[in-house]
């Protein structure tokens, strides 16, 4: 997993998305390319189709596409934010797969985080592997917290980073005008999830200090907080030069038609 992250080109998008669920957070691709028309491309297509199909039924799943040669075996997963409905989850994953087709065309591995979902694939197994590599850090403007306000903010973050003994990969908290959300990827065990979230909470408080908002994404978990009226979403990076999405775009359009038909039927 760490090897893939080191090969990723991380890009922030400044253009507004259709909805907050679909807002682009970060994306990255392996610098290693596969040959178009190769068995590996067929495995990528099969894996991403499985992710899109599965997202209509559940908010998390992972798949392994086995191949006679180890370098063509492919691993992948998706995860939606814990408060999304199945319809919103499926729509988010379909859009993420479509954007991966643009961002990571012919790349042997890629990861993409939207506000509402996360999709990743690679030919090196990362499933069940804890990884606290820092992927994205963003702090809002500094504000004049009073001591009570800062204590409330820290109390909310500490609540998200503390275990009550149960497995809770998705957590929300709030106090007064401060709200926060945390999530770890569900291929982690309960102890690994807790370790990741505790780590990110500690780093976020250090990094963002008295900021009005903050986001910190590690490879397998994230925490975001915001004081009312402030947010840390959106980036200051370069706009991606889009290329034809090809197969992934067709998948997205197909599922968009399915969702529209279901809505009209109801």
From TrEMBL:
Its main location: other. CDD domains: Gnk2-like. Residues 22-126, 127-230 form the Gnk2-homologous domain. It is found in: Cell junction, Plasmodesma; Cell membrane. Residues 1-19 form the signal peptide. It is a single-pass type I membrane protein. Keywords: Cell junction, Disulfide bond, Host-virus interaction, Repeat, Signal. PROSITE patterns: GNK2 (PS51473). It comes from the Eukaryota. Transmembrane segments: none annotated. PANTHER family: ANTIFUNGAL PROTEIN GINKBILOBIN-2-LIKE, PLASMODESMATA-LOCATED PROTEIN 6. Belongs to the cysteine-rich repeat secretory protein family. Plasmodesmata-located proteins (PDLD) subfamily. This is Gnk2-homologous domain-containing protein. It comes from Salix suchowensis.
């Amino acid at each position: 997993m760490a090897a893939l992250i080191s090969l990723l080109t991380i890009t922030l998008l400044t253009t507004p998305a259709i909805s907050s669920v679909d807002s682009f957070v970060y994306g990255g691709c392996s610098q290693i390319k596969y040959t178009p028309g190769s068995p590996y491309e067929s495995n990528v297509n099969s894996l991403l189709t499985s992710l899109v199909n599965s997202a209509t039924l559940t908010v998390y799943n992972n798949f392994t596409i086995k191949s006679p040669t180890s370098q063509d075996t492919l691993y992948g997963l998706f995860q939606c934010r814990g408060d999304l409905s199945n319809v919103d989850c499926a729509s988010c994953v379909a859009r993420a797969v479509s954007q991966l087709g643009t961002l990571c065309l012919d790349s042997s591995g890629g990861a993409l985080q939207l506000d509402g979902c996360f999709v990743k694939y690679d030919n090196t197994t990362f499933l069940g592997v804890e990884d606290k590599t820092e992927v994205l850090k963003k702090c809002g403007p500094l504000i004049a917290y009073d001591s009570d306000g800062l204590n409330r903010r820290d109390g909310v973050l500490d609540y998200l980073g503390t275990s009550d003994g149960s497995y809770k990969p998705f957590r929300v908290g709030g106090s007064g005008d401060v709200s926060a959300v945390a999530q770890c990827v569900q291929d982690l065990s309960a102890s690994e999830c807790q370790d990741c979230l505790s780590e990110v909470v500690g780093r976020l408080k250090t990094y963002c200090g008295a900021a009005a908002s903050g986001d910190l994404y590690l490879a397998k978990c994230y925490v975001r907080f915001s004081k009312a009226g402030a947010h840390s979403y959106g980036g200051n990076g370069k706009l991606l030069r889009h290329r034809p999405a090809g197969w992934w775009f067709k998948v997205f359009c197909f599922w968009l038609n399915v969702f529209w038909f279901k809505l009209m039927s109801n």
